[in-house]
Amino acid sequence: EGWSRNPYGAEIVDGWMYGRGAAVSKSDFVTYAYALKALIQTGANLKGTVELHLTYDEEAGGAIGPKWLIDEGISKPNYAISAGFSYGVITYHNGCLHLAVHVKGKSAHAAKPDTGHDALQAANSVMTILYDHKSLLLERESEVEGIGSPQLNIGLIKGGINTNVVPDKVSMRLDRRLIPEEDAAEVEYDLRALINRSIPDLEGISVDVERIMLAEPLKPVGDVQRLASIVQKHASAVLDQDIPQAGVPLYTDARHYAAHGIPTILYGAGPRSIEDANAHRADERLPLNLLQDAAKVIALSIADLLV
Fold first, then answer.
1. What are the angstrom distances between the C-alpha of 170 and each of 30, 97, 122, 199, 212?
2. pTM, entire model
3. Rg of the Cα trace of the chain?
4. 1, 5, 2: which is closest to 18 by C-alpha?
5. Is residue 124 part of a domain?
6. 135-143 — which CB contacts under 8 Å span 24+ positions?
7. Is the pLDDT of residue 158 over 90?
8. Which stretch of DSSP H or E encloses residue 86?
9. Residue 181 CA neighbour count, 13 Å, CB half
10. Are residues 89 and 222 in the same domain?
11. Range of the domain at 299
12. Shared-domain flag, residues 31 and 103
């Protein structure tokens, strides 16, 4: 819905390819594969091994993708380069906490609502408190360029039985983005306490909070500066402009490599922002010239690492 092009058509318009996942992250599959193909074709005598990990469960946590590969000892890399865009070498990204909040009451006929306990009314109290908290979060800001403020979003809500019935249960899902300076355990504890405090005086109402996923922020580990500087040097040369080291307000499964002490950055093919790419929404798109540029950057960087 909302697409002006066939989401599966890979249509090219004015140098931009349109399609689902074009920028996040099919572009990086292509970038890395062609970078490696170019290195092979040079016949250069490089030392070391390059592994290409094509995994698919990032938004579900990455537990059966990169995390499994590393936890099981199948992969033991010295460095990791993960999916990203072209105009920044990313050494930080946000974390993410997903919670499910279940507000329970008692159903009743709408003609006699006082014989029940309205879970939707109670859920409204929970949401009001959370939205007030969201406003306070915006007063904080990360010291890392590109990260911004912590964020909170209620992205899904469902409940009720019928129009003429007092709702007995309402569930909602919330997304809390953690900046790198925050402690995930403290954030979750505070959110749970806030939610529980939102309905203390409502008779017959209970609330359960369930963690769905926790993704820790990506932070620099080991000699990541060596890796970032090499990629930054080649990106600046290929794109003919200064490419900064920065952070992004997303979360990725690159964090699993860093959690094992593996220096990790994000770099790949993509425009300046997720807004430019229409990432994860209608008319997702990618400038095709950046596929070639990013492949050059990755190939040159790997060559430097393997001399």
1. 43, 20, 9, 14, 17
2. 0.90
3. 23
4. 5
5. yes
6. 140/179, 141/179, 142/179, 142/180, 142/181, 142/247, 143/181
7. yes
8. none
9. 10
10. yes
11. 11-93+217-305
12. no
- Based on the fold, state whether residues 178 and 247 are members of the same structural domain: no
Phi first, then psi, for residue 112 (nearest 5°) are -135, 60
Amino acid occupying residue 84: G
Q: What is the pLDDT of residues 245-281, one digit of tens each?
A: 999 999 999 999 999 999 999 999 999 998 999 998 9
Q: Which residue has the tokens 């066939």?
A: 6
How far apart CA 148 and CA 140 sit, in angstroms, is: 8
Mean pLDDT confidence for 33-38: 96
Residue where a domain stops, chosen among 200, 215, 230: 215
The rounded distance, in Å, linking the Cα atoms of 253 and 246 is: 17
DSSP H or E segment with residue 91: strand 89-93
- CA gap 275, 256 in Å, rounded: 26
Rounded Cα gap, residues 131 and 265, in angstroms: 33
Same domain for 112 and 192, yes or no, is yes
- The percent of residues in the chain predicted with pLDDT above 90, rounded, is 92
Residues 88 and 110 in one domain: no
Q: Which of 295, 249, 245 is nearest to 269 (CA)?
A: 295
Number of domains in the chain: 2
Kind of pairing, strands 169-178 and 95-104? antiparallel
- 128 and 211 share one domain: yes
Check: CB of residue 86 under 8 Å from CB of residue 270: yes
* Residue among 28, 39, 36 at smallest CA distance from 83: 28
Domain boundary among 189, 215, 241: 215
pLDDT for 1 equals 86
pLDDT in tens, 208-224: 999 999 999 999 999 99
